[in-house]
């Protein structure tokens, strides 16, 4: 068992060398404990993902495609985007604690993670990943809904994110503009799922970082109309009504629990 767990440590150590070795002298990070190296790598990776994806997407939709996807009067101001960046940067060190903790638990054999797809085979890998995603979808839906329904949680945590409640205040940079505890709570289902279903370690790490891209995407106000994806059109309604579309990747949980509101139907009502 100890030999198998070394595979996880070797993988995280490889990520540390790639990220930290690229941006920092080894003398700065080499002496740090392995867990702290992991946190620092997650922090640098999170910042890069946030700014690169945010700036590229904003440049594309607000400048290259100006007035194509979003009317001029619906483009958020620079002031609004700078505020979102400020909130996200204050929370980023805390966000990175969760994947660092999950890596620690995986490396110590506390979870059901496996290191190689060949250990279970491709059919089982696909099934396990699908079950993992269902658990994550279910968990994020209910965490998000409770953050709205329980008044103290909304007032002291989730309201920080919901100051962006109009199309001209939403941008890709709003995707991570949360109270730190709010952002962590909404990512916790990713960790809980590791104790419930076998999960490929690399896929888990990739999905954690995919969250950063996904949250940027669903705050750009562009309705992609790809069923059953819970895209930006649905999430914009969530920011304006506060009572619909709590889901994450898909519309299924909102459909099952009666909180779904379709942006196409909303547009039809306005006509």
From TrEMBL:
Transmembrane stretches in the record are 43-62, 122-143
Membership in a protein family = Belongs to the sterol desaturase family.
Question: Which species is this record about?
Answer: Datura stramonium (Jimsonweed)
- Which keywords does the record carry? Membrane, Transmembrane, Transmembrane helix
User: Where would you find this protein in the cell?
Assistant: Membrane
State the signal peptide span: none
- Name one matching Pfam family: FA_hydroxylase
Instruction: State what protein this is by name.
Output: Fatty acid hydroxylase domain-containing protein
Where does the protein principally reside?
membrane
Q: Locate the Fatty acid hydroxylase domain: which residues?
A: 130-259
